[in-house]
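*Target chain*
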Amino acid sequence: MKKDFSPVLYGAFLNCRTEEDVRVLLEDLCTYEELEQLSQRAAAAKLLIEGKTYAEIILETDISSATLSRVSRAVNHGSGGYRKFIANVLIPQRKGN
């Protein structure tokens, strides 16, 4: 039986006090691509919660339709994390907008 190390990860996030703390932790935990994918999913979830269409979200985030479908399923039928923690986060405007 494998040992569950998830409490180490959860505790690390709970020790973060600022956005900068979270940023440096994620940069050490994830590859650049993993961090980009997590960021893309979070943005897509926010846009879904705001009522944007799949087409609008794909255009804005460049997320694949398959990944967007999984994010949508989590938003609508998951544990509630997206709605609890991402709904009120602001999405920075793209440069040139």
